[in-house]
Structures are given as C-alpha cells and as structure tokens.
Amino acid sequence: MPAAGIVNIRRDVDDKFYRYRMPLLLTKIEGKGNGIKTVIPNMSDVARALSRPPSYITKFFGCELGAQTPFDEKNDRYIVNGAHDAIRLRELLDGFIDKFVLCASCKNPETDLNVVKNGRREDIFRDCKACGERTNIDMRHKLVTFILKNPPKNPKKSKKGKGEAANNGNAGGVHASGPTIPGQEEDGSGGDTDDELTRKIKAEAADLTNDTVLGDDDWAVDTSTEAVKARIKTLEGQMGGLSLPGGDDDGSEDDADSPYSQFGRWVEEHRGQDGIGSVQIYRKAEELGVEKKHKAVLVLVQALFTEDIVEEINTYNALLAKMITSEKHQKALLGGIERLAGLTYTKLIPAIPKILMALYQNDVLDEEVVKQWGTHVSKKYVDKETSKKVRKASEPFLKWLEEADDGSEEE
User: Fold this and answer.
1) Which one of 113, 207, 221, 273 counts the least CB within 10 Å of its CB?
2) CATH architecture entry for 111-175
3) Which pLDDT tens digit goes with each residue over 36-68?
4) Are 408 and 399 in contact (CB under 8 A)?
5) Which range has the worst mean pLDDT, 8-22, 161-175, 281-295?
6) Nearest to 84 by CA among 140, 134, 40
7) 3-state DSSP percent of the chain in helix, strand and coil, to 5
8) What positions does the domain W2 occupy (predicted)?
C-alpha cells in the first residue's frame, strides 16, 4: 500500500500546527465493467485517527453515492462499488467528519459517539471532551439506521476513574482522539504496556556508539556552505506532521498566534541559515516567554531536527541542555522524537537507538526516564501503534543500558 500523507482532520484549517491529524484517504480502482469497484486500502488508518469504526465511514460513502459498500473487517478490506475519484471521496469524508465527528459547538474532533435509549426511541449524541457540550446527530441521515444496528463499543475505562464510563449509562460510545491528539494519558501511566518489550530484547547494541561522538559543549553551529545546503535540502516539505500538545498554561496549541506556534514557525523558517544557532534559537524562545516550558521542547524537536538528527543533536547540544531541565521536559523531548520518527521521517525508526544514545551521551536524557518511556506505550503524542513501533525500535538501547548497569553492579 502506498504511503499516505498526513492532513488536518479539519481540512478547512490551514495551520500546520493544528494538533488533530489523520492520514490522507487513498483509493484504488479494481475490476472493470459492471464489476468495477473502488477499494480504500487505508480506511482502517483513517478511521482509527477519527476513532470511528471504518464500517461507519464506508457505509456513509455508500449512502451519499447510492452505491453498495461491501466490507470485510477481518481482512481489513473496505469497498465502494463503482469507480469513484479520490478527491470526491475525500470531500465526502469531510462531510462525515462534520456530521458524525466534530462537536457542533466548538468544532473539536475530540468527541464520544453515544447511542442513548429514550423509551422506545434511540438517539445518537456527540459528547465533546474539549468543551463539555452534548450535541445531536441528524437522525434523518441514512447512516443512522446502520449505527443503531451496529452501535459503537463502549470506550475503555481509564485508570483515572471508572465513573467516566459509568456516566454513559446504557450508551455505547467511541472517542475521537486521533493519532496526534495529546493529553489523554500521562507518560508511563495510563498507557498500555507492551509486554513484549519486557520479555525479549532481540537486537544487539555493539555498534550503538558509532557515529554518536560528542561535540564540544559550546553554542556554535556549523554554518559552512555545504552544511547549510545539506540541511536546507532536507527541510523542504518535511513538516506535515507537526502538532502540539496541551499542558502549559499559556497559549492554545490550536491558535496560530500562540507563542508555541510562533516559536515553531520561526525555528522551521530559520534553521540551517547562516548565523542561526543555539544562542539565536534560545533567545527567540526567551522573547516569546516559552524558554522554560516543556511544550516548547516538543515544538523544538519537530521544528528543528531532520533526518540528520543524530548529528544535529551534537550541534545543538548546548541548546537542549539549556531548555531541558526536568523530567517533564525529557518526556516532551521523547514525545517529539516519537512524532518526528513515527510520523514525519519514518525512515528514522531504525535509527532510534542511535538517537537515544546521542541524547543520553549529551546528558540530555536520564537513564530512569528513558527506561520508563521505553517500557510503557502511551497515546499522549502519537497513536498506539506508532508508539509501539518507536519503542520496539528502542530495544537495543534499552538492552545496552541494562548491560551497563549489570556491569557496574558486578564491579
């Protein structure tokens, strides 16, 4: 399946710092004549980002197009009969999002879809976790019949309290959190543990220290013509997956004029330019009043680093040391790495051990923080599958840490 780009869930929002994102819907025409059909190979990924069952979206397309929509959930195959243009289906997807995902009050996609019985009547509501409003679904739409016959599953009960699920009464619900919707869980608590990480570490760490030699702890940046050209070449069109989490008390991550959005845009626009190094970036953070905020670290990682991150960590080690001053900052740093490697530069996933080693050798990451991160899957910064993938790739570094500890104890 070809790789899908990442787009805002609300495609009317142009801000690339908008935190709610999903894969771009892909289509594939198969067959011919009366047997022609449109297959949607990444329907499950799109549906997962919206936290709605893929069958709902597929049936919605059928309702709007007057077409049959056979699907096989077991084999992850979703079809709309007939030949349909990808652009048209993406427009219809926008309609589905507007009618069945976005809160009618605040237009936030962070909603639960609930079916509530009212005597003999059943109603469908969107419960918004952002503004608290409960808004009605248009019960006249043809998809409503399918939803009532196939109600959404109850959301999982969180460790923070079983009362949240109980508040739904006899309602079924599913929560729209998307792959980049943060703030649902704290790192290392509330996320599902990937037991396989603690059971087996397969890869070896003998060559982890290669290409991770420390740079001098100064505030300089390589501004040679070759270095600048190399960085600029990797910058073009690479910031599609940038988004911001909640947590600090000033500025909204959905606001293009927030200090975090301004900081991220400035770093993205000026990185690699002559004379722009650690000092200039830190001064910009000071100017915007975010130099001590952990959210600024998350933005910095996504805006500053490229596929050459291992070398860039050594270049900007003084900046990282200056801005990362607590465990919370380190967790934001790791969250930024998850997004950078898991969403923006997926080719970096095999290099996760080297990235962690470079951060560790530069005294930016503490051993206990990275160990806890490596053994606990969290949906705070990326979706669960991406979180697992990134942590799985970190196994060689975790093994190296364990062996280093064992060696110290034996001595």
Assistant:
1) 207
2) Single Sheet (2.20)
3) 999 999 999 999 999 899 999 999 999 999 999
4) no
5) 161-175
6) 40
7) 45, 10, 45
8) 253-411
- CA-CA distance, 366 to 328, in Å (whole number)? 11
Mean pLDDT, all residues of the chain: 77
Instruction: Quickly state the pLDDT bin for 132 (edges 50, 70, 90).
Output: confident
pLDDT of 121 reads: 83
How many helices and strands in the chain, by DSSP H and E?
A: 17, 10
Phi, psi of 123, rounded to the nearest 5 degrees: -120, 155
Angle ∠(11,84,10) on CA atoms, nearest 5: 10
Buried b (16+ CB within 10 A) or exposed e, 85-122: eeeebbebbbebbebbbbbbebebbbbbbbbbeeeeee
Name the CATH code of domain 6-100 (choices 3.40.50.1950, 3.40.30.10, 3.40.120.10, 3.30.30.170).
3.30.30.170
CA distances (Å), 28 to each of 58, 85, 97, 155, 379, in order? 14, 9, 22, 32, 30
User: What's the predicted TM-score (pTM) here?
Assistant: 0.44
Q: Which residue has the higher pLDDT, 67 or 166?
A: 67
H or E element in which residue 330 lies: helix 327-339
Q: Name the band, by pLDDT with cuts 50, 70 and 90, for residue 408.
A: low
How is residue 193 written in tokens?
A: 């543990």
Domain residue ranges in the chain = 6-100, 111-175, 195-410
pLDDT, average across residues 308-332? 91
Q: For 358-392, what is each residue's pLDDT tens digit?
A: 999 888 899 889 889 988 888 888 888 899 999 99
Q: How far is CA 217 from CA 10, 106, 222, 296, 297, in A?
A: 43, 47, 13, 21, 19
Instruction: For residue 217, give the H/E element and its range.
Output: none
- Given a cut of 90, whether residue 300 has pLDDT beyond it is yes
E strand intervals along 147-242 = 172-175
Q: What would the CATH number be for the domain defined by 195-410? A: 1.25.40.180
Q: Answer yes or no: are the C-beta atoms of 353 and 307 closer than 8 Å.
A: no
Token couple for 101? 């995902």
C-beta separation of 15 from 242 below 8 A? no
What does the alpha-carbon distance between residue 308 and residue 259 come to, in Å, rounded to a whole number? 27
pLDDT value at residue 80: 95
Query: How crowded is residue 284: how many other Cβ atoms within 10 Å of its Cβ?
Result: 17
Q: How far apart are CA 243 and CA 261, in angstroms?
A: 9
Token couple for 382:
């990326």
